[in-house]
Amino acid sequence: MIELVTGTFFAILVAGFLVGIVVGLTGMGGGALMTPALIFLGVGEAATVVTADLTAAAVYKTGGAVVHHREGTPNMQLAKWLIIGSVPTALLGPYLVNWFAGGDSEELDRVLKLCIGFALLFAALTYALRLWINLRRVRAGHHSTSDPRIRPIPTLLVGALGGLLVGITSVGSGSVIMISLLMLYPGLSAAKLVGTDLVQAVPLVLAAAISNIALHGLDWGVLIPLLIGSVPGTILGARLAPRVPQSLIRRGIVVVLTMSGVALLDKAGWAPLGAGEDETSPMAIVGVGLAMIVLVPLVWGIIRRTQGLPMFGSPTVAELEDPDYKPGIIGMKRGGS
């Protein structure tokens, strides 16, 4: 266990605090940021990091879910089907990947880094999909609803996929499931979407944490500073959220997620990128980040053109992320001409 006076303890605490702020600011899943941060800090093997991150997430997600439940925002019928699908696969996921690695700790560490790397790239992609869905919603003039017609089987399958992903990597409860709900229920109001996602995430993350603890144990020296840092960070981020331009932060997160995903695949020795931890390619990773900064606005502009809009202008990314945004009649007519 890490002693309280070591630099590692404070490094984890600071990382937890900074990631907590970002989670509070944007609502994006903490696992997609915290897991790679802890791996790059070198606080333990990937399995140790995943277990600690899931356990910490079970604590702060429970608090958020209680608040949303008191305000009546979750759709409990929708959450029920997600939970039925996610909990069994969240319990099963860690055992599957451990079986795949043959019980060898080094191979398990490599496989987990591969899985987390791909999960991070998938999480970055879900943000782009979310913007595209919101753009189509605005163009189609969808009206928000709090009680859409529930589609049990597709919802259960979404839960099962999300549970498997979270159980293995700790990534996905706040990104993959969120985008899947947007695709299944495009008219679901923003408050209901966030509240439902938080409520279903609590048993999902708890199940994943329990399964990982049973397999790998729990390093309290990682968990304690993680909780000490992340809880106040999340509260501070939530208080700052109304004053901070979230769209800029979210786009920065997408770049960071992509770079982190590529870096982990490189460290794991994925053939197209690298040969393992001793031969990582920092310049290639930086190049990916710079390419993202240049290419993402251009690709987004092309997507806007396919929807009959100019490459740049209204609705902006910030407007698309605003649940209360409604385009003016004049703007809609111009966009459709």
UniProtKB/TrEMBL annotation:
<feature type="transmembrane region" description="Helical">
    <location>
        <begin position="37"/>
        <end position="58"/>
    </location>
</feature>
<keyword id="KW-1003">Cell membrane</keyword>
<keyword id="KW-1133">Transmembrane helix</keyword>
<dbReference type="GO" id="GO:0005886">
    <property type="term" value="C:plasma membrane"/>
</dbReference>
<dbReference type="Pfam" id="PF01925">
    <property type="entry name" value="TauE"/>
</dbReference>
<feature type="transmembrane region" description="Helical">
    <location>
        <begin position="222"/>
        <end position="241"/>
    </location>
</feature>
<feature type="transmembrane region" description="Helical">
    <location>
        <begin position="283"/>
        <end position="303"/>
    </location>
</feature>
<feature type="transmembrane region" description="Helical">
    <location>
        <begin position="6"/>
        <end position="25"/>
    </location>
</feature>
<comment type="similarity">
    <text>Belongs to the 4-toluene sulfonate uptake permease (TSUP) (TC 2.A.102) family.</text>
</comment>
<protein>
    <recommendedName>
        <fullName>Probable membrane transporter protein</fullName>
    </recommendedName>
</protein>
<feature type="transmembrane region" description="Helical">
    <location>
        <begin position="253"/>
        <end position="271"/>
    </location>
</feature>
<dbReference type="InterPro" id="IPR051598">
    <property type="entry name" value="TSUP/Inactive_protease-like"/>
</dbReference>
<feature type="transmembrane region" description="Helical">
    <location>
        <begin position="111"/>
        <end position="133"/>
    </location>
</feature>
<keyword id="KW-0472">Membrane</keyword>
<feature type="transmembrane region" description="Helical">
    <location>
        <begin position="153"/>
        <end position="186"/>
    </location>
</feature>
<dbReference type="InterPro" id="IPR002781">
    <property type="entry name" value="TM_pro_TauE-like"/>
</dbReference>
<feature type="transmembrane region" description="Helical">
    <location>
        <begin position="78"/>
        <end position="99"/>
    </location>
</feature>
<keyword id="KW-0812">Transmembrane</keyword>
